[in-house]
Design a protein that fits this description.
285 residues; four-stranded antiparallel sheet; disordered N terminus; alpha+beta; CxC3 like cysteine cluster domain-containing protein; CxC3-like; 33% helix
Amino acid sequence: MNEECSGNIPHALEETESPSSSPAKESELRSPSPPIVESSLMDHDDFHSALEQNVLQEFNNVHFTSKNLTQKPMCKETAFESWKSKQEIVYGSLVDSYTANQNLCGLCKAISGYGIIKCKDCCNYLCFSCDRKRHSYDPSHQRMYFKTDSSFKSLLPTEFITSRGEVVEQRVHVPLFPLPICTECDSRETSCLIASSKICYVVTRKGRLDLNLPVFHCQNCEKSTFPTVEDYISSGFWPGTPERFTVLFHQDVLEFWHHLRLLTKNVVSIMLRVVFSIATKNKTI
């Protein structure tokens, strides 16, 4: 750690009061403030050892004070009855999630006359211009285009809306970290990403995305280079093979697959392929 932390490693609490201490003093002893580790004065092993002790100490404090709680956990039947009493409200909220209740852009505050775009991942309403700026570089979000006649359309990652409310397609590249230094002219922070004409398929936990392979373009020397396998992996995308980038797997999918396979073994291989197929056909993203 670069910054120094104030404080010392906590020691065992010493009894400074007699058994007839006031209740306020006892509560202070039972609930000490979270300790702070002074990492700049320790080596790597000592720091992690002290950090582990601090975490265990905080857990014991929470576990100790939780014994005084009188609220019992809600049983399964009580939780079901609680949800059942709110059935109409929950259903109405679910229906409202597929509607748009405003035509004001949450970013530029402009009023759109041809409809509005609702992004469930951004939790915001966007005009057509702000949507294009935001999601041309983040294609994984779930977006819905609500027209003035209250109809709506789920937008693909490559679909955007013109100023007159027409749905058009444009190239959208796989989002990668830009190069800090141009490999051609050695200039710094002049690299940007543009979409090439080559198609690729990106497998995410939400389904499959049909995108374009990116190209690093230097704004100084105007040279363009294709990303390497190191660039994809460092940005969280694993290609099917190190030489070809036609199919990319997002790292979240691989981690999810790893843990799910350990739990469900043989069943997961079949069911996961079915889930990805259904999610892609339904065009949820």
